[in-house]
């Protein structure tokens, strides 16, 4: 059942989930399968039920900067773009109600990296079979949505780079390739298969043990009379304060920005930083807010000869994955192909906006530049400071990847049949050719694909910067777990939404003691 205001000064449940986003919806559905288990979800945004602005996938671009977007910004980025809007969703379903729903299983080596960082139980054999439990419908872009220019991009990308065309990127692990993405959507009607749609919509009015507190902002975690951290201070849509208590566990699912923000506001984080802000320290956890990860990308823009055919799933339906280091088992460069001129950053740099155009966005899959976030003040209403430290890795890997990506994008654009669609390169323009100039342009026009992660990373008991253990339990605190992308110790190679889904399904088993799935995940 849904509500916009907490009932009374304090209400209690078995589990309280802070954040009704990608992971929170999964946990809410799984935990409330037990009719005797009382589950409450605290979500700062409204419901998505019946809202065509949210439910139609192709409208995603109009959600950026809207009332459904918390709209975080970065501090000055000396070697990157300081003007990036880091969109975070304010709506039930979280970023799965807000993003493009590009859906990739993590590659096995991504999970091997987690195990190497002390995350026992997150190996491929344990995690990948959870794919068969996912309720979201994940399918390759439907034939009716395959725009002719996107098809020609795939052909040209394969010809120019020699990588294979892949029909289903989730059928088996791949080292490189080009093709149409898999999306979590219903092609008929262009409807999202977000976690809210797939996990909550079918049950939210049928389970009296499930309570959704919508448009309710959680701003501090509080102790109970025994000193345990069991209570959440919230403000409802009417502005009235209330508290919500968890009898079993608090589950923090607010995402890689708002989960560490909530912890720090509650006195859990780097002690000296908190004291400077006048926040009483509850637990000194220096890793909270550190290890801020992202998938940085740049953009090249071409003008097309005429308007493109209108069909598309979400205007960025195909991509390219390459290995610059050929001996590696995973891509280290990826591209999204936009069937619209995505010019928010190039226009700011003075480049014209073509009436009709396409873009390629070279992207760094496992960026080596690592940032951090921190509180600016003890005021819960003030946005935190985000410093992604783009393109600052000492070896220059991220910068080189973007430069090579811009060069390869030109090779693809010069290859038939894609080249037949194009009139001219608008940004950065054919005169920008040296590595230095490509680097300067590529970094200043850089953007994000909205994948912040890592700020409450899990790790082994002897890892001083780990915020939670491999069972997602908050270090130094009993009865609190974190389940969202903030727990990632390293970034998955490709779009991480499905990795969040797998983590949430895994977390449900950790909480209930149910056995995980066994055997190899089957394709579907």
From TrEMBL:
Belongs to the GMC oxidoreductase family. InterPro entries: FAD/NAD-bd_sf (IPR036188), GMC_OxRdtase (IPR012132), GMC_OxRdtase_N (IPR000172), GMC_OxRtase_C (IPR007867). PANTHER family: GLUCOSE-METHANOL-CHOLINE GMC OXIDOREDUCTASE, OXIDASE (CODA), PUTATIVE (AFU_ORTHOLOGUE AFUA_8G04090)-RELATED. It holds the Pfam family GMC_oxred_N. The lineage of its organism: Bacteria, Bacillati, Actinomycetota, Actinomycetes, Kitasatosporales. Residues 255-269 form the Glucose-methanol-choline oxidoreductase N-terminal domain. It comes from Streptomyces cathayae. This is GMC family oxidoreductase N-terminal domain-containing protein. SUPFAM superfamilies: FAD-linked reductases, C-terminal domain, FAD/NAD(P)-binding domain.
């Amino acid at each position: 059942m849904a509500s916009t205001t907490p009932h009374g000064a304090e209400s209690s449940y078995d589990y309280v989930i802070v954040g009704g986003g990608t992971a929170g919806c999964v946990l809410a559905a799984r935990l409330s399968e037990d009719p005797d288990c009382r589950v409450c979800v605290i979500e700062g945004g409204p419901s998505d039920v019946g809202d065509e602005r949210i439910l139609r996938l192709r409208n995603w671009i109009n959600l950026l900067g809207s009332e459904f977007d918390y709209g975080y910004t970065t501090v000055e980025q000396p070697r990157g773009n300081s003007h990036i809007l880091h969109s975070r969703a304010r709506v039930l379903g979280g970023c799965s109600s807000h993003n493009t729903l590009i859906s990739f299983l993590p590659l096995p080596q991504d999970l091997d990296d987690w195990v190497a960082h002390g995350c026992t139980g997150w190996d491929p054999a344990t995690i990948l079979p959870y794919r068969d439990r996912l309720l979201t419908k994940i399918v390759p872009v439907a034939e009716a949505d395959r725009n002719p220019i996107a098809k020609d991009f795939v052909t040209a990308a394969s010809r120019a780079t020699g990588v294979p065309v892949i029909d289903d990127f989730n059928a088996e692990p791949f080292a490189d390739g080009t093709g149409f993405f898999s999306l979590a959507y219903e092609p008929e009607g262009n409807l999202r298969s977000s976690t809210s749609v797939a996990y909550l919509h079918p049950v939210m009015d049928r389970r009296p043990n499930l309570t959704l507190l919508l448009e309710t902002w959680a701003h501090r975690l509080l102790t109970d009379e025994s000193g345990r951290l069991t209570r959440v201070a919230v403000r409802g849509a009417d502005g009235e304060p209330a508290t919500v208590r968890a009898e079993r566990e608090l589950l923090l699912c607010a995402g890689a920005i708002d989960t560490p923000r909530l912890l720090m506001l509650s006195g859990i984080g780097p002690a000296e930083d908190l004291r400077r802000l006048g926040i009483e320290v509850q637990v000194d956890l220096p890793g909270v807010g550190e290890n801020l990860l992202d998938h940085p990308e740049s953009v090249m823009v071409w003008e097309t000869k005429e308007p493109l055919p209108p069909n598309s799933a979400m205007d960025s339906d195909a991509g390219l994955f390459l290995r610059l280091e050929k001996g590696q088992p995973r891509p280290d460069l990826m591209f999204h192909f936009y069937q619209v001129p995505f010019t928010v950053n190039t226009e700011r740099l003075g480049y014209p906006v073509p009436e009709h155009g396409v873009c390629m966005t070279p992207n760094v899959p496992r960026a080596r530049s690592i940032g951090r976030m921190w509180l600016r003040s003890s005021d819960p209403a003030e946005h935190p400071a985000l410093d992604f430290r783009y393109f600052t890795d000492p070896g220059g890997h991220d910068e080189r990847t973007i430069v090579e990506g811009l060069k390869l994008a030109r090779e693809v654009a010069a290859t038939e049949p894609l080249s037949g669609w194009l009139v001219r390169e608008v940004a950065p323009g054919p005169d920008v050719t040296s590595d230095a100039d490509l680097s300067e342009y590529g970094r200043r026009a850089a953007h994000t694909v909205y994948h912040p992660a890592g700020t409450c990373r899990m790790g082994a008991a002897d890892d001083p910067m780990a915020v939670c253990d491999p069972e997602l339990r908050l270090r130094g605190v009993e009865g609190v777990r974190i389940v969202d992308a903030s727990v990632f110790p390293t970034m998955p190679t490709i779009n991480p939404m499905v990795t969040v889904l797998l983590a949430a399904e895994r977390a449900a088993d950790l909480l209930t003691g149910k056995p995980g799935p066994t055997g190899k995940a089957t394709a579907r």
